[in-house]
């Protein structure tokens, strides 16, 4: 999808207009490694994709924001002169509405517009379509307020604002990684990010002859919320046990050592959860080193180790993700694979020899379907820019 195609989609939807159609792209994201350690003081390693949610708009003279999406039914209309509140009937429209409300409350100028969204990103598959939509709306408003100064938009603050909307307006208890990656993504780079301090640095991801293949289980995430809370509880417990037995307290679970865990925690499940956290944090640091040295194979091996740890110790994978990853690893030319996102369905990623990608997709697809009865979907994406005007 390019700018002109998006403008055509807009005309198809709203009819021909003689006004300027302004277009934007907000990417989805994958987390390359560093799973379930953001809330334990660890580093995550996400990257923005080149697939995402597009937005096209024309300005209106009044204070009405009219929104449609090519992917979802229904028109959502917002009157900027009225109080903006969450409305179940507005469904997906609550994401952009919440963002508009938050920006309005902070004193930003917002005028009427007709917007069309279009996405080539699966929603609800763990590639952060919700964050892409939030950041897109925020960027649109801030861009229109002062197009000449769009380079000066404080992207860290925008990701904070969008996380707040998802937490408070939508009611989803997510960390900041998704909005941060969508907003601060950089072409051909991943972002090493400490979700607590928001310290971050870019890491060039030169994959050489390998492609990053995104594999969708096509199984919607289930249990994700309750298990997420359960895992957070288990990690808190592990930290508590370690700190009540140590003279020198540690600030978070990532600061524990394997020895601490082995000698102090007796409960088997809690021990394995803590072991995942500590080893995963180590794998993120090693990944950064591997990539700096151009050791893609080494990075691939770390990805696979990460999956095994999430499967056996953290137990957040399930049949669909495990089947996809293990079938992927059996194919020649695949040098690493793992689940990405919260788990229990959603997507996995694999590093695959460019020349073998078609064969890879075919074989993995057949073998995955044999086991699960579902056909998976594949996306090939490069690492792209954060939300921007086209
Ligand atoms: P994820 O962020 O992993 O894709 P979420 O459940 O957090 O999954 O967000 C998915 C929701 O985001 C959808 O149910 C829908 O409300 C909204 N959404 C995603 N893509 C679009 C789109 N193209 N148009 C309208 N709404 C969308
Ligand atoms: Mg989401």
UniProtKB/TrEMBL annotation:
<dbReference type="Pfam" id="PF10509">
    <property type="entry name" value="GalKase_gal_bdg"/>
</dbReference>
<feature type="binding site">
    <location>
        <position position="69"/>
    </location>
    <ligand>
        <name>ATP</name>
    </ligand>
</feature>
<feature type="binding site">
    <location>
        <begin position="124"/>
        <end position="130"/>
    </location>
    <ligand>
        <name>ATP</name>
    </ligand>
</feature>
<dbReference type="InterPro" id="IPR006206">
    <property type="entry name" value="Mevalonate/galactokinase"/>
</dbReference>
<dbReference type="InterPro" id="IPR036554">
    <property type="entry name" value="GHMP_kinase_C_sf"/>
</dbReference>
<keyword id="KW-0418">Kinase</keyword>
<dbReference type="InterPro" id="IPR019741">
    <property type="entry name" value="Galactokinase_CS"/>
</dbReference>
<keyword id="KW-0119">Carbohydrate metabolism</keyword>
<keyword id="KW-0299">Galactose metabolism</keyword>
<keyword id="KW-0547">Nucleotide-binding</keyword>
<comment type="pathway">
    <text>Carbohydrate metabolism; galactose metabolism.</text>
</comment>
<dbReference type="InterPro" id="IPR014721">
    <property type="entry name" value="Ribsml_uS5_D2-typ_fold_subgr"/>
</dbReference>
<feature type="binding site">
    <location>
        <begin position="35"/>
        <end position="38"/>
    </location>
    <ligand>
        <name>substrate</name>
    </ligand>
</feature>
<dbReference type="Pfam" id="PF00288">
    <property type="entry name" value="GHMP_kinases_N"/>
</dbReference>
<dbReference type="InterPro" id="IPR000705">
    <property type="entry name" value="Galactokinase"/>
</dbReference>
<keyword id="KW-0460">Magnesium</keyword>
<feature type="domain" description="Galactokinase N-terminal">
    <location>
        <begin position="9"/>
        <end position="57"/>
    </location>
</feature>
<dbReference type="GO" id="GO:0004335">
    <property type="term" value="F:galactokinase activity"/>
</dbReference>
<feature type="binding site">
    <location>
        <position position="228"/>
    </location>
    <ligand>
        <name>substrate</name>
    </ligand>
</feature>
<keyword id="KW-0963">Cytoplasm</keyword>
<dbReference type="InterPro" id="IPR006204">
    <property type="entry name" value="GHMP_kinase_N_dom"/>
</dbReference>
<feature type="domain" description="GHMP kinase C-terminal">
    <location>
        <begin position="288"/>
        <end position="369"/>
    </location>
</feature>
<keyword id="KW-0479">Metal-binding</keyword>
<comment type="function">
    <text>Catalyzes the transfer of the gamma-phosphate of ATP to D-galactose to form alpha-D-galactose-1-phosphate (Gal-1-P).</text>
</comment>
<keyword id="KW-0808">Transferase</keyword>
<dbReference type="InterPro" id="IPR013750">
    <property type="entry name" value="GHMP_kinase_C_dom"/>
</dbReference>
<feature type="binding site">
    <location>
        <position position="130"/>
    </location>
    <ligand>
        <name>Mg(2+)</name>
    </ligand>
</feature>
<feature type="site" description="Transition state stabilizer">
    <location>
        <position position="29"/>
    </location>
</feature>
<dbReference type="InterPro" id="IPR006203">
    <property type="entry name" value="GHMP_knse_ATP-bd_CS"/>
</dbReference>
<feature type="active site" description="Proton acceptor">
    <location>
        <position position="178"/>
    </location>
</feature>
<dbReference type="InterPro" id="IPR022963">
    <property type="entry name" value="Galactokinase_bac"/>
</dbReference>
<dbReference type="InterPro" id="IPR019539">
    <property type="entry name" value="GalKase_N"/>
</dbReference>
<comment type="similarity">
    <text>Belongs to the GHMP kinase family. GalK subfamily.</text>
</comment>
<dbReference type="InterPro" id="IPR020568">
    <property type="entry name" value="Ribosomal_Su5_D2-typ_SF"/>
</dbReference>
<keyword id="KW-0067">ATP-binding</keyword>
<protein>
    <recommendedName>
        <fullName>Galactokinase</fullName>
        <ecNumber>2.7.1.6</ecNumber>
    </recommendedName>
</protein>
<dbReference type="Pfam" id="PF08544">
    <property type="entry name" value="GHMP_kinases_C"/>
</dbReference>
<feature type="binding site">
    <location>
        <position position="166"/>
    </location>
    <ligand>
        <name>Mg(2+)</name>
    </ligand>
</feature>
<feature type="domain" description="GHMP kinase N-terminal">
    <location>
        <begin position="94"/>
        <end position="186"/>
    </location>
</feature>
């Amino acid at each position: 999808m390019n700018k002109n195609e998006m403008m055509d989609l807009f005309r198809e939807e709203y009819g021909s207009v003689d006004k300027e159609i302004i277009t934007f792209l907000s990417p989805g994201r994958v987390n390359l490694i560093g799973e379930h350690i953001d809330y334990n003081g660890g580093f995550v390693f996400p990257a923005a994709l080149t697939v995402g949610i597009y937005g096209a708009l024309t300005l209106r003279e009044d204070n009405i924001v009219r929104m449609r999406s090519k992917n979802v039914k229904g028109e959502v209309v917002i009157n900027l002169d009225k109080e903006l509140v969450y409305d179940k009937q507005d469904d997906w429209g609550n994401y952009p509405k919440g963002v508009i409300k938050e920006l309005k409350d902070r004193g930003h100028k917002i005028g009427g517009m007709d917007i069309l969204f279009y996405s080539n990103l699966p929603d609800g598959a763990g590639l952060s379509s919700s964050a892409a939509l939030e950041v897109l709306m925020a960027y649109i408003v801030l861009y229109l307020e002062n197009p000449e100064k769009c380079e000066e938009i404080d992207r860290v603050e925008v990701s904070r604002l969008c996380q707040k909307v998802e937490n408070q307006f939508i009611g989803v208890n997510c960390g900041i990684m998704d909005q941060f990656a969508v907003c601060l993504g950089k072409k051909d780079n991943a972002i090493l990010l400490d979700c607590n301090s928001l310290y971050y640095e870019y890491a060039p991801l030169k994959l050489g002859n390998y492609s990053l293949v995104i594999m969708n289980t096509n199984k919607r995430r289930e249990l994700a919320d309750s298990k997420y809370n359960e895992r957070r509880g288990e990690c808190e417990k592990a930290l508590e046990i370690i700190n009540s037995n140590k003279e020198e307290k540690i600030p978070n679970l990532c600061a524990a050592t394997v020895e601490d865990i082995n000698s102090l925690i007796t409960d088997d499940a809690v021990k394995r959860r803590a072991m995942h956290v500590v080893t995963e944090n180590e794998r993120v640091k090693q990944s950064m080193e591997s990539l700096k040295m151009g050791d893609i194979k080494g990075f691939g091996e770390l990805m696979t180790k990460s999956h095994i740890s999430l499967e056996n110790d953290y137990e957040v994978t399930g049949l669909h993700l495990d089947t996809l990853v293990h079938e992927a690893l059996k194919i020649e030319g695949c040098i690493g694979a793992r689940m990405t996102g919260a788990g229990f369905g959603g997507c996995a990623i694999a590093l695959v020899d460019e020349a073998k990608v078609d064969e890879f997709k075919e074989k993995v697809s057949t073998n995955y379907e044999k086991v699960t009865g579902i056909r998976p979907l594949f996306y090939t994406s490069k690492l792209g820019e954060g939300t921007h005007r086209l």
